[in-house]
Amino acid sequence: MIRYLRHSDIDFDAYRRSLNSSDNYRIYAEPWYLDAVTGGCWDCLADEGYSRIMPLPYARKLGVKIIVQPLFCQQLGVFGIGKNSGSVNDFYKKIKHLPLRSYAFNEENTAGNGKFITRKNFVLSLNESYEALRINFNKNRKRDINRIGRLKTQVSTDFVVQDFVNAVQQEYPDLPYYRSPVFFRLLEEIKNRGLYDFRGLISDGKEIASVLFLVSGRRRILLMSVKSTFDAYRGAAAFLISRYIQENAQQDLLLDFEGSMIPGIARFYGSFGASPKNYPVLSRPYLFF
Prior knowledge:
Structural class: alpha+beta
Order of helices and strands: EHHEEEEHEEHHEHHEEEHEHE
Low-confidence stretches: none
Mean pLDDT: 93
Number of strands: 13
CATH superfamily of the largest domain: Gcn5-related N-acetyltransferase (GNAT)
Distance between the termini: 32 Å
Number of domains: 2
Protein name: Acetyltransferase (GNAT) domain-containing protein
Organism: Cruoricaptor ignavus
């Protein structure tokens, strides 16, 4: 029997065991990650023994909990021990009458009979050699990588949260969520737990581009990239992504680009040879905040 558990009633040890034993593990569903992006505003569904779990982040409106997908959290859904988390039909039946604005399941979840929409992610398996992977890069990416590679630059792994936040805010000044405490809090948590890989491109002592990856089991998730504003360094972020692919090639890892439905961004991710992967989303846009 599937039960709705308020945050205070969750057995977090059992929850973590189920999540960490799941074939479709995502760092987004970790309790600490959800706490960072929701301020602790999340409950969950769990069946007997926590063999399957489904975190439910929410916001409140007029005292009512409304399920809503948090920022910086692409995929949630059903997780379970082994391959126990495929079909979401029974979980869908539990939430379809709850106040819900948006909720994203994960790529491994089977949508079933619910009224889902489909969103696209891009994923690249890194189990081949870099040379074999690079063959699938398109000519624009290869050109950018070669051009940046001829410049006098260094690659840094020194992740300074405030410097990265400043760079992101400078590149995206009109996006308020990068100025929210949630963004800084999440990056601090990621750094403190060591669950990141950072690469910055340095020229003349200045960082001109950077990329930040989440370490999520065997996935490496591209959480954010900051591009150079100088024409001479156009393609610097692509160079760093390529460098990261080279460093991690021939390993049982997946590079998860975390999107996108925006055509230009989707083409950019696909230009590295990444394959599109769909995941189901419940959306009720008429439920306004």
